[in-house]
């Protein structure tokens, strides 16, 4: 949730220790579990998880990443996830997204593309089918 590594060998009583988190709060859906810090998981509670976009990225109208991950897992394809003011901002965003998705959904290989459009640069994620 916080994008920091979790040490599975730490005490579960330590705030940075491991805790099992479900990616969605909807128990009727297929639920993917992952490790999270105990403090992060407790702070989140039973609300739907939101993956924050880093402040260092210059993104206009960023897409909700959990919903994007669920759609790409279910349907594959390609999805527009952000608009950026410059190609450099878009490339930094694309690189961050590929890295983030490799940890958010490890079994889902994604690539990111940057395309010019409407005076901005569009960042899209696509599932790589083998």
* Sheet/helix structural class: alpha+beta
Strand order of the largest sheet: 3-5-4
Fraction of residues in helices? 25-40%
Order of helices and strands: EEHHEHEE
The average pLDDT value, as a whole number, equals: 81
Task: Please give the radius of gyration in angstroms.
Answer: 16 Å
- Number of discrete domains: 2
Strand content: 25-35%
The major beta sheet can be summarized as: 3 strands, antiparallel
Q: How far apart, in Å, are the first and last alpha carbons?
A: 29 Å
Overall 3D geometry? globular
Low-confidence stretches are 24-29
- The total count of helices amounts to 3
How many beta-strand elements?
A: 5
Quick synopsis:
Residues 1-26 are annotated as: Disordered. This protein has 130 residues and is of the alpha+beta class.
